[in-house]
Amino acid sequence: MQGRILSIQSHVAFGYLVNTVNFSNHSGYGRSGGSKTSATELNSIFDALERNELLSPVRLLTGYIPNAEALTAVKQLAEKLRKEKPGLVYLLDPVMGDAGRLYVAADVVPVYRSMLPLSTIITPNWFEVETLTSTTLTSPASLRHALTKLHKEYRVSNVAISSIPLTGRPWLAALLPGSIQPPDDRDEEWLLCIASSVDESESESPDTSAVYAQCVPLLPGYFSGVGDLFSALVLAHYDPDPDSPGPLPPLPAAVSQALTKTHAVLCRTSEYAAQLPEAERLPTDDERDAVDPMRKVRRMRGRELRLVQSIDIIRSDSTETTTKIRQLERWDGFWTTNL
Predict the structure, then answer these.
(1) What is the secondary structure of 265-312 as a DSSP string?
(2) Are 152 and 141 in contact (CB under 8 A)?
(3) What Pfam family is a match, any one (predicted)?
(4) pTM for this predicted structure
(5) Range of 53-62, 200-209, 229-238 with top mean pLDDT
(6) Closest by CA position to 263, among listed 324, 216, 310
């Protein structure tokens, strides 16, 4: 891929998270210092880039933006770039929350909804899908409704749901094709990744999308920046040319690479953390962490993603990757199968 990528998201002084905020460290530590970039500051940056003829990306990636004013400034830039460059590949990661709670101001939600039609790809997690579509994922019908709303109402061509925990969702595990169902092991938890693209040549009918999926084991513990890494890898591997060589269409091909590499980096990080002294790998305990904040800090330091140490994984291609590609598989019957 030739050309510039403009990335607009968080910046921290310690850690490898890929500047809508300038913090000392990510929020997983429980405390941080720094500031949020205001809409005025963002607009000043964008204006200077344009005056200096530096605002010419062929791809745009937006991630964590903490409030509606700043997000609106980013939206206006995305609108401008989309108008000037109709072929712009824009990956919008609607970073809003996880595990059932928002970690941004609630007023960003309607702004994100208004930005969805500008995107080429979106990469929400399950909670962000629920938030964007006002749909709780509790059944096959609700999942289909959420995807339909994203594709039809918000006109998003490519939706990659980065992770849906299968634990507590037996209806979802039962719906999966046998080829991608995880082993029946109650001691291991799994995450489901879904890629859904509107492509009449691939879909089961003109009113539905082509759906692909794959599962990965859930690693224990909390790691920050996983969604940022996944989204960046999806954008890096996305080739919009439908005639590109390979067994998969553009979105599931890119998501397969992103899922594989993200999981491999997490495994390397987890292995590193497991070798640290006991005081630096104590399990999460909200009460004890509140009494002794350094308990959490020590734990999070050991769980910083090993990105630099995993450059071999990140740079590898499909023919030389150091780990087996977790290729997404076609989910035939997604729109028709009933339990």
Answers:
(1) HHHHHHHHHHTS-GGGSPPP-HHHHHH-HHHHHHHHHHTS---GGGHH
(2) no
(3) Phos_pyr_kin
(4) 0.89
(5) 229-238
(6) 216
CB 85 within 8 A of CB 116: no
Residue 118 CA to residue 124 CA, distance in Å, equals 15
Q: Angle, to 10 degrees, between the axis of helix 126-133 and the axis of helix 108-115?
A: 90
pLDDT in tens, 32-50: 677 678 899 889 988 988 9
Return d(Cα 174, Cα 166) in angstroms, integer.
Answer: 10
Q: Which two tokens stand for residue 204?
A: 């089961």
Q: Can you tell me which residue has the tokens 């023919």? A: 319
Let me know how long the chain is.
Answer: 339
3-state secondary structure of 126: helix
CATH 3.40.1190.20 is held by the domain 90-330: yes
Residues forming beta bridges with residue 6, ordered by sequence position: 60
DSSP state string for 136-202: ---SHHHHHHHHHIIIIIS--SEEEEEEEE-TT-HHHHHHS-GGGPPP--TT--EEEEEEEE--TTT
CB 195 within 8 A of CB 212: yes
The tokens for 141 are 């019908």
Q: What is the dihedral of CA 330, 334, 337, 339, to 10 degrees?
A: 110
